[in-house]
């Protein structure tokens, strides 16, 4: 088996894949088209499955040290009533860890610090990927070309590699929701580690960080491409009657810190995650809505599973068959569950439907809710040792 790989994309999935491959003895080059390393962005929640993947990559301890456990909070109504309370301690007893909140930029930095020196090339756009022989893939980027035994396409939801190797796939579609988010400029007394609030066709939530700051997000059911001249003023107007600390979070945010993105997804599942010696990973393979907080966790699962398969099988081809068989059913099932969660959450707008949903949530025992969470969190990674 050869041992040279090119990873296209320097996001969470791409960096994790590179670390995993390196741990298995591969020489890895990561090509990132952005000229600036991704130290921007908002926050992220990491569930037990993502943290276990990070443990196998040797990054878990550093990530935990930089994260805040989510023990308190839950889901509320705009007036502040509770639909469901979080029991982070019960979750920790069940899977060994609470969900952890961390700034995305911090996670990126910690992953980059575990890369082999000189392996990450920024400001490098891939223009073509082609299998030129039974065991060789050529990657064209700018004025040069690289040849590798394996290419990992981790270039996001708009993956150019995916569109080349699976030209018949329709690609990403708009989910019906748009999201605004930011990290506060200073510490805010949010009281709960994590909260979601569901209104009619709208959601507001926050993740508290170790340093007292918090990430907030606002999800709105609006036509794709909707943008606001003054996003913070618009959100203050829309959420002016919602419970604390919604307005406090908005008031603690600099206008230029607000990010606004439409939520897109790969609604049509891919027929395969591999084509020849090219493997699709993360959002390039299974971009999903954020309603279960599993997007990054699934990418981390992909990375560890791919590295382990390459270490266990005698050929790249056999390893990629194994990777596809292990990752495609699970990740596509999680994507479907996330889509359904969105339909039952923020996307509901009819008053009767919202009332029925709220009643059902209030009547659901906490143990039953924990069991539902464990379906996605209780994943055990293959060993990279």
CATH class value of the domain at 4-68 and 99-173 and 265-344: Alpha Beta
Tell me about the largest β-sheet: 7 strands, mixed
CATH topology of the domain at 4-68 and 99-173 and 265-344: FAD/NAD(P)-binding domain
Q: State the fourth-level CATH superfamily of the domain at 4-68 and 99-173 and 265-344.
A: FAD/NAD(P)-binding domain
Query: Which structural category do the helix and sheet elements fall into?
Result: alpha/beta
Stretches where pLDDT falls below 50 for ≥5 residues?
Answer: none
What is the CATH-assigned architecture of the domain at 4-68 and 99-173 and 265-344? 3-Layer(bba) Sandwich
Oligomeric category: single chain
The number of distinct helices, counting runs of at least 4 residues, comes to 13
Computed over alpha carbons, the radius of gyration is 21 Å
Whole-number mean pLDDT? 94
- The backbone outline, from C-alpha atoms, is globular
**Percentage of β-strand residues:** 25-35%
Number of strands: 19
Please give the share of residues in helix.
25-40%
The neighbouring-strand order within the major sheet is 6-5-14-15-16-13-17
Structure overview:
With 385 residues, the chain is of the alpha/beta class. It has a domain at 4-68 and 99-173 and 265-344: FAD/NAD(P)-binding domain, CATH 3.50.50. It contains 13 helices and 19 strands. The strands form four sheets. A seven-stranded mixed β-sheet has the order 6-5-14-15-16-13-17. The protein starts with a strand and ends in an 8-residue tail after the last helix. The model has no long low-confidence stretch (mean pLDDT 94).
């Amino acid at each position: 088996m050869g041992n040279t790989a090119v990873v296209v994309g320097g996001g969470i999935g791409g960096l994790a894949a590179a670390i995993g491959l390196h741990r298995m003895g591969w020489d890895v080059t990561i090509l990132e088209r952005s000229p600036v390393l991704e130290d921007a962005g908002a926050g992220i929640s990491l569930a037990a499955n993502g943290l276990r993947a990070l443990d196998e990559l040797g990054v878990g301890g550093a990530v935990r040290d930089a994260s805040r456990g989510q023990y308190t909070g839950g889901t509320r109504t705009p007036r502040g009533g509770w639909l469901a309370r979080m029991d982070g301690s019960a979750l920790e007893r069940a899977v060994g860890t609470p969900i952890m909140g961390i700034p995305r930029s911090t996670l990126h930095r910690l992953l980059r610090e575990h890369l082999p020196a000189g392996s990450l090339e920024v400001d490098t756009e891939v223009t073509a990927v082609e299998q030129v022989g039974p065991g060789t893939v050529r990657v064209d980027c700018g004025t040069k070309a690289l040849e590798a035994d394996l290419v990992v396409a981790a270039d996001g939801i708009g993956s150019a590699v995916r569109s080349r190797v699976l030209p018949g796939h329709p690609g990403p579609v708009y989910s019906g929701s748009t999201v605004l988010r930011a990290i506060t400029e200073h510490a805010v007394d949010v009281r709960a580690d994590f909260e979601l609030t569901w209104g009619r066709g709208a959601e507001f939530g926050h993740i508290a960080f170790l340093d007292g700051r918090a990430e907030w997000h606002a999800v709105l059911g609006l036509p794709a491409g909707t943008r606001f001249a003054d996003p913070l003023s618009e959100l203050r107007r829309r959420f002016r009657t919602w419970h604390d600390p919604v307005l406090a979070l908005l008031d603690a945010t600099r206008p230029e810190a607000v990010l606004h993105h439409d939520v897109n997804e790969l609604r049509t599942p891919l027929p395969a995650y591999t084509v020849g010696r090219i493997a699709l990973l993360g959002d390039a393979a299974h971009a999903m809505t954020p309603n279960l907080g599993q997007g990054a966790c699934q990418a981390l699962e992909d990375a560890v599973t791919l590295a382990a398969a390459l270490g266990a099988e005698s050929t790249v081809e056999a390893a990629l068959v194994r990777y596809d068989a292990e990752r495609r059913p699970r990740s596509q099932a999680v994507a479907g569950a996330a889509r359904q969660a969105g339909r039952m959450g923020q996307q509901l707008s009819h008053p009767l439907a919202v009332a029925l949903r709220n009643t059902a949530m209030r009547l659901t025992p906490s143990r039953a809710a924990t069991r539902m969470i464990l379906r996605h969190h209780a994943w055990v990674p293959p060993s990279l040792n």
